[in-house]
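Exercise: predict the structure of this protein bound to adenosine-5'-diphosphate.
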Amino acid sequence: MIEVRHLTKRYGAHLAVDDLCFTVEPGKIYGLLGPNGAGKSTTMNIITGCLAASEGEVSVNGHDIFEEPVEAKKCIGYLPEIPPVYTDMTVDEYLKFVAEAKGVPAKARRAQLDEILESTGLTDVRGRLINNLSKGYRQRTGIAQALVGNPEIVILDEPTVGLDPKQIIEIRDLIRALGRKHTVILSSHILSEVSAVCDSVMIIAHGRLVANGTPDELTKLFAGEREVHLEVKGEKAAVQAALRAVEGAGDVSCKTENGVTHAVLHPQNGADVREGAFWACAKASLPILEMRVEQASLEEIFLELTQADGQPDAAQPPEEKPNPAEGGETA
Ligand code: ADP
Ligand code: MG
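Solution:
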């Protein structure tokens, strides 16, 4: 379990993470969703103890990441945005090196690494130089290093970025499988990715949490934005008068072109106004040529939420970089 309370990070005058609060419950897959520059990597680097916060608290299974970093970090495996793999090592050599760095007891090492190689689909390429692996297999190696030490929580920063569609599907399947044994937090700027894999979604924009829930909950939360569109044969005044009288129709906007009026109803409190609209038009002798319901998709909700204040993200030169390799001072 991770508790993030009032987390804030400033890079100089730039506020990258702004008073972020959330809780991560065990056994679920969480998605941190936000456009580039939203503050995902910064948040993950702080939660994993790779970067200091400006303000706020992070506790991992009851251990404060700033006060008891060793205990807190033992609970977490991390794949940073730039995977900390050494390309001149074989997969096996590299994972052994990570196991030593993480202090996995020598006796348990071989069995644990074999299990990780198997679960990440790397057994067949264990003797290959990482340099000679495809991007998908390199990413598997990055995920494998996060699993060394058998952490309860696995944090993956944009795990599918730069992969081809087939590799993306394979990595998603791998993440789903990880979710059966670990709590997983992954970040992505692609909504379909998060809704395909995650039980819970946290949408962040400009360092702030703007929405939080299951993909279904988020869709329902915004279900009020249902619109009913009608094409009605008749002039604007008549169509508007008929439809405005429909119970729950809400705001009715109309535009007439070539004798056909396009009307949009914004039903109040999710009212189903379709039958009412039918009878109202029938009684006024206004034939309905077409009727359809439009509902904001999760994609639209995401775009609206994350573009709300419309600030394009200015690329900032890096000032402070976290150390990507955990305990990797020999690199
Ligand atoms: P994301 O991972 O969501 O793309 P980041 O956490 O990398 O977002 O960045 C959040 C904001 O902080 C961005 O505006 C970025 O330019 C800025 N930023 C990130 N790292 C640094 C840094 N080391 N120094 C200065 N600004 C940074
Ligand atoms: Mg990032």
